């Protein structure tokens, strides 16, 4: 009776054991995948850190050149600001004098014709 009971019990519990075995295989595979993924992300983060280190070094290298050229950029910016103001002034002056030129043009044409005669 005891042997029949244990055999029946094993037959009954076998599918659950198979399920848990499959589940453990699945979780083992998942853990392997996550381990690979974490390895990949760690490598990627090391790459990004190296890239940031490179760009920091590059900016440190170029900083003296920017410090050297800054005064020239400031001067040219000031010069362009001055020339823009001057051009604005001359444009305003020409706008102001244009009506006078329109008024005196016929007299100039007349005197030019008279002088050519």
What does this structure look like?
The chain has one helix at 2-116. The chain is mainly α and 117 residues long. The protein is rod-shaped. It starts with a helix and ends with a helix.
How many DSSP-defined strands? 0
Low-confidence stretches: none
- What percent strand? under 5%
Main beta sheet strand tally, sense and closure: none
Please write out the topology.
Layout: H1 2-116
Compose a concise summary of this entry.
The protein has 117 residues and is an all-alpha fold.
Short descriptors:
117 residues; mainly alpha; 1 helix; 98% helix; 0% strand
